[in-house]
Amino acid sequence: MHPHPSDDRAQTTIDFAIGIGLFLIVVAFVVAFVPTIFTPFQSTEGPQTADRIATSLSTDRLASEPYVLNETCTTGFFDQLDGGGPAPSACRFNTSADTTRQLFALDRTRDVNVTVRYANGSIVDGGRLAAGPTPSETTSVTSATRVVSLDGQPRRLVVRTW
Amino acid sequence: MDRAQAHTLEAITASLILVSSLVFALQVTAVTPLTGSTSSQHIENQQAAAAEGALAAAVENGTLTPTLLYWNESESNWHGATADGYVQGPPPTAFGDTLEEMFLDRGIVFDLTLYYVDDDGDRQREPIVDLGEPSDHASTASRTVTLADGDALRQPDGSASDTALSNASYLVSDADPDQTLYSVVEVELVVWRM
Question: Are residues B25 and B52 in the same domain?
Answer without folding.
Answer: no
